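USER: Please consider what follows.
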Amino acid sequence: MSRGVEALMVPPGNLAELDIPQGILVDIILRLIFVEGDTPVVRMEEVLRVPFKVLDEILLGLQTEHLLEVPRTTGRVSRRAYVYRITDEGKRRARDASERSQYVGPAPVPLEKYYQAVLIQAQQQQVSPQQVKDALSDLILPEEFDRRIGPPLNAGSSLFLYGPPGNGKTTVAEAIGSLVAGVDPVWLPYCVVVSGQIIQLHDELIHQTYQKDPIVATDVDPRWGRFRRPVVMAGGELKLESLELRFDPMTKIYEAPLQMKANTGMFLIDDFGRQQMRPSDLLNRWIVPLETGIDLLRLRTGQTFHVPFRQLIVFSTNLDPAELVDDAFLRRIQMKIEVSSPDEKMFYRIFMMMCQQMEVKFDKETFLFLLDKWYYKAGRRLQAVHPRDILKVCKALCDYEGAPFKLTPKLVDEACHAYFVEPQDTPARQGQTAV
């Protein structure tokens, strides 16, 4: 278990130690039995993730109030073998509970405990230079590129990746995400409660259960799960509403914003500047959280509360940073890394690597032909993505003809004619008569 989090993970021994209003748990139990019908205690333990000792305490009270009854047991006579049925009065109370919320799931934890857990575990994200080098080993990058990545990753601060398209910014960011996810796992609650309102934090697409070295369930509060550090990736589809609490009018519960789901991990904003909002709107929304490490959220009632803003924020863009953001924002991004076009040496290494991956023999004459005709004479900039794409086109042409995949100047020339978009006034087109 992560050091310092032990005190937050102690299983509750009674209702008081749940640290949440009793009415929240009562409502979830009544809604569960109202929807599912006769419900065994073990099923309630599974859904609510509350230890039997605590659950039994509240079930006994509901029996006393004649909201629940026990029509049978699942085996030997013991309270844990009871099957509960809801009474007519219990159904009335369940309908009232459903008017307040339709949430049925793990019992929430108080916001304060979640806050502490994030602060403790965000500080434990440490990687070695070798780990960073290994994560980037499949990429052809400039010397000591890892030194630009490691420090902000360990600081859990922010990165700004910029440069012309097609040179691996997104691939670098994804490699960083895999590295972050592979650091020591974290404990996160499935949901939290703020002023009686449930906020669902757990997202199956983001929070992946950590399978290694499982910890016995009785050792920890079952309302918490052990996950790989979350990695959130958003591109042009990102909207400003995604960074605020989302209230579902049907279920009457809140869904945590993306940056809250990314706490203790990483949040990548790819193609920054092409979102469905102005860059200035995003910058204004995050300029204070980036400075303070604290985010401010608001309930529908107007009540505001603070949550930690502790994840590695990575911006990736093809646009000029000077035109995209102002100096005040750039000062809050600790590391700016240009992922530039490769030089001839790097381009050669990338081409060689892609030939190996695609199992085609490298041909020096063909490579020099490619550089001369399609880059030097055409005045075209080298891009790291081109070797992969051109070789794919070459393979597709060979597969179409049923010919063996072998590099020749003629094949590469045909592939480049298909891959690159030539200007309409190129010499190749001059003198042609329009049809």
User: Anything to note?
Assistant: The two ends are 73 Å apart (CA to CA). The mean pLDDT is 89. The CA atoms of residues 395 and 405 lie 6 Å apart.
